[in-house]
Every structure is written in structure tokens, then in C-alpha cells.
Amino acid sequence: MTLKWWAVLVAAVSVTSVVTANVAIVAVEGEQMPLVVNLFALTTAGTAVVLAVVAELHERLNDRVSALTEFLVARLNEIETHAGDRNTGFVEGYLLSHGQDADVVPFGRPRRGAAER
User: Fold this and answer.
1) Angle at Cα 11 formed by Cα 8 and Cα 15, nearest 5°?
2) Smaller CB count within 10 Å for the chain: N or C?
3) pTM of the complete model
4) Sign (positive/negative) of CA torsion 56, 58, 61, 63?
């Protein structure tokens, strides 16, 4: 069982037991259960309900993140198959045609040297 269902079970047992105990005490003795016992049971049930809700939200978030991850992996694989090695051939051809010691050509306009001014 998951945490969510354990929390639901604890809340149900807690509420059921305190209601049953209250009804039994009132029917047999005509008195009420001590306030501390009722508050403890209600606190336990409330905490268990909050824990169940948080566990459900965590499970949903985890499912969405997993779906998003699978979608992104599929999309990246699709992009990779379409792009392939188009640029690799260009770069390798450039390097082979110019040799490994090819000059670096800067972008932009060439600067004038001091002698050309």
C-alpha cells in the first residue's frame, strides 16, 4: 500500500474509533469521553487527511514530470534524427581543405595597419 492509502486508513480508523468510543461511553455511563482523547483522535485524523492529500498531489506531480520528461526525450531524439550530421560534414570538409593549421579569420571589417593610414 502507498503512503496515501495508509493515511486514509489511519484517518478512517481514528474517526471510527473515537465515534464508537463516544457513543459507547454515553450509552453505558451517560458521561462523555475526555476532551484530550477526542482532540488526539481528531488531530490524528486531520493530520492523516492532510498527509493523504499531499501524497496524492506528489503522485500527480511525479506523473506529470515523468510524462514531460518522456515527451522531451522523444522530441530531442526526433530533432537529432532530423538534424543528423549535417554540420559535421561541413566542418570536417572545411578542416580537411584548409589543413589543421588553418588561419583564424575574424568577423567584421579588416583593420587598417599603421602603414596603410
Assistant:
1) 145
2) C
3) 0.60
4) negative
